[in-house]
Each structure stands twice: as structure tokens, then as C-alpha cells.
Amino acid sequence: MFKLIVLIFCLFLYITTFSQPVIRIPRYNLSAIKGAEAQLVVQMPFGKADITQITGDTALLKDAGDIMVDVVCTEYPSNLSLTELNNYRVESFLKTFPYIRRSQLTALNIYRQLDGSEKQMADTMFHGLVVRFRPRQTAETMQRDITKLDEMLQPVPDSSNSNLPPITKSTQPVLQDAIAKPAAPVNSYKEYRNLHTRQPASTWLQMTITPDASTATSNKKISFGGINTFVLKSNLKIDSPISVTPREALEQKIITPAQYNAFKSCSKIIIVVTKPPPMETPAVPSAEKDILDEKTLSTTDSAGKTHFTPLHPLLDSTLFKILTRNRWRNAVVVGDVTGSMYPYIGQLLLWLKMNGTDSLGTKYVFFNDGDGLPDDKKVLGETGGIYSAECNTFDQVLTLVKTTMGKGGGGDNPENDIEALIQAEQTFPHNDFEVLVADNWAPIRDKALINKLTKPVRIVVFGADYGRVNVDFLNLARKTKGSVHLLDEDITNLSSLHDGQILQISVSKYKVVKGEFVDINITQTKSF
Q1: Which residues of 486-523 are buried (b: 16+ CB within 10 A; e: fewer)?
Q2: Measuring CA to CA, which residue among 185, 51, 207, 61 is closest to residue 129?
Q3: What pLDDT, in 10s, does the model give residues 148-173?
Q4: Which of 138, 133, 114 is nearest to 42 (CA)?
Q5: Predicted local confidence at residue 289, as pLDDT
Q6: How far apart are the two ends of the chain, measured CA to CA in Å?
């Protein structure tokens, strides 16, 4: 009884720690993730907290760092807060993955769908959680990010010089037969993607296996996540999760012996078969037209017009669209290269490769938040991990980026943006302004130093879904008379707003209070 009381008290402390950001939108868009984050879609029934389906690679959660959770419900009944229900939904997720620490949940956003104001419509809409996360950063993961950055910068090979043998009529049937009868399930998205090029998408299924946490006992803790496999057929009905013992699943030939060995310590497992995730768009010029116009794919030099098309399609096109709208000159580029920023810094490098180094400027500052310095040793304004140079060639910029990334080692969530901007002003005093390539996930640790900045800061923000911009960047732009730039919007009037005025970005609202923006999407409801 005493343990139960302590548990309830701890839960109360937890759920009163957070405020509840409530955002009202017509319908939540279940789109594929486009940035560096991984994503799980945790589906639940209308009005309930039971997990009926999990889509995504749950095994990655074991190494997750920061986690952001969108709790999706409907505006029905419109007069109910739904706070208790949404709390139970988050608790259901945490019970399913007990190794997730509550401190990893850096943001919990409530989305109420207005199109579900009628019961009949609400029943047809998505309810549950969308969980986005990044890997916990270490020196090893930073090295992997450098490798991924290199892959982004690889061009599409010239087919006339390819060393790969062409697929002929004589070889194609052999390949088809090998794919149609795989010896074992495909255990990675990369394998699935490669095989998919010769196997119709409609024939593939994704099977997700996760521990059934509701059956776990105190002496048999579940300490791992689930796995995803891609199969050509299954004994299970699509989108109908079942809870069985690993032995039963093996005997019914639903899982393989290897999968049984991975889960045999669980009393029960949840298995669901779904349609596989959409394929990545092939990286060919015709597939890039929705992201980049044809002019962006070319650059002119003294030898004439040449073309560069990246081998891999962009995960995100924010920076390309911003730089197409804003032709900035005489700027210092200041870039955050901490964990999982490689897709965004990669965009900067691709832009320079396609448009020339002088298309944006020759002054660059990159920072990694302390060269792997332990968080408790970081001093305001003296964190370090900042590297700068004047670069007249693309290779010089690339070397500076990789050097800065290679010396980093992850660290905590807030970053030393202002320290890097101050160094940019001191190192390059004759430039007009700074362009900050910023991570919306990471608050500014040293915002107390903003008053030391003397030049405008134009902030390119990545990861601001539904216009939810980290308020630190709005205040940085406001106080420096700079601007904030998103995928489809440039916000340039921040310093002119007075106390009491409201800034709306997409469906999110921010109010000026005592000279600073505050997020008024947050309702103080003592939840989460």
C-alpha cells in the first residue's frame, strides 16, 4: 500500500511539472518525417489509451536522446479538457517502453483536431501519439553523422562510366526469382529499399514486434524495444495487432526462430502487420523538381555551365527555399553542427556546391557546444567548440564543418548559439549581419548574453512543425532587429511589435510580454 501511495505521489509531481501546449488544427497531418529525427506513430482508439498499432522502428528508441511527443485528439466533446485521457495515453507509451526516462521528454504538445467536432467524424480520424526522437549523441554518433554528410554530397554517377553491369533480359529473371523467395525476412529499411526496386510495392508488408508491457512482471523487466521486418507474406491480417506468447508465434510460423530468441524472455509480445513506409524518392533530376528548380541544379564557371545533382534526395528543403527567396550578401554564416544537424548543414554545403561559394559569403563560423566538454563544466560564454575561417572554396567550407563536427561529442540539449555569434562579430567585424543555421529542438543556453550582440541575426530555423518556433529564436531575432526564416515564411517585423501584440505563425501564437515573446499556445492546466 505504501509503495502505491509513493507511486501516485511521484506521478502527481510528474504531471504537474509540465504545462500543456494545446494547438487547435483542422486535422493532424501524418506525414513522413523529413529531418534527422526518427518517428514512431502510436495509434490508439477514439477515447481510449490502448495501443493498437505502432509504426516505425521501435528498436531505435533504446539509443534515443531527446524525445518530442505530439498527443493527437479531437475536439469532441468540445467542452471537455481531455487532459486525463491524454495523460493516460502518454503513460501507456512509457509503460510500453519502460527504459525511456521521463527526463528525455523535452516537449509534449497537444493537438486537438477541429474536423472531429462530430462523433461520426471523430471516429474516422487519427488518435494517439506521434513520437519523434534523435539518437543520444556521442563521439561515435558524430563520426557517423560525418559519414552521412559525405553521402549527401555524392553526385549521381555518370551512367556511361558506371562499373555496374547492366540488368539484361538474361539476368533479370534470376534476380526476380531470388527476391520472390527470400531465405529470411528483410531486417532493415535499406535492404527493403534495395529489393523494392525490382519487387512491386504492393507485395511487401512491414511486421512490427514489440513486448507486451502490460504482461510484464516485476521480476522480468522488459529492457529492449521492438523490431521491424519486411516480409512478402504473413499469416496475420493487416492492421490487426495480436498479443501472443513468443512460443505461440513461433509455432504458428508468424515469427522466425531468430525473432523468437530475441523475445523469448517476454511473457507475451504484440505483433502487427502493416503496409510498409513509402519509398524514398529516387535521386534523379526529375524527382527533385518539387524541391529545387532547374536553375538551382546548375552553376556557371569560367569553363561554362556544369550540373551537379546529389545522389540522395534532400530530407528537408528549408534552407534551399529560404536562400532562393533571400539572396543575402556580406553575411557571416554561423552554423550549429551538434548532434543530428548533418541534414541541415548538408543543405548549406549543397547550396554552395551548386551555386558557388560566393553566393552566400566567404565568412563561416561553426560550433559543436564545447568539444565534448561535460555539461557540468560548461561556463556561460566560455563553452568553446567554436571554429571560424574565411573560405574561398567549397572544400575549405567542408573541411571546417567536418573538423568542427569531429571535435564534438553531443552533450546536453541547450546550445551556445550566442557565444558563437559573439565570436563571429569579433572575428569578422566588417560584415553586415549573421545568418544563424539553428536547431529548433535546442534552446539557447546563453541567451543572457544577447545584449552583447551589435548586428542583426537572420535565423534559419529547422524543425518548426506547425509554426512552433522555439521562443528563444524569436526573442534573439527581436532583440537584434533580425528575422526568422521558415520553410515557407520570412518573419521580419519582430522588433516592431509592442507589449500585448500577438504574432501568429501558422497555427501557433506568441505574445509580447515585457519586451519578450511568450508562447501563448501553452495553457497552464497542471497536466503532464
Answers
A1: bbeeebeebeebeeeeebebbebbbebeeebbebebbe
A2: 51
A3: 888 777 765 544 433 433 333 332 32
A4: 133
A5: 31
A6: 24
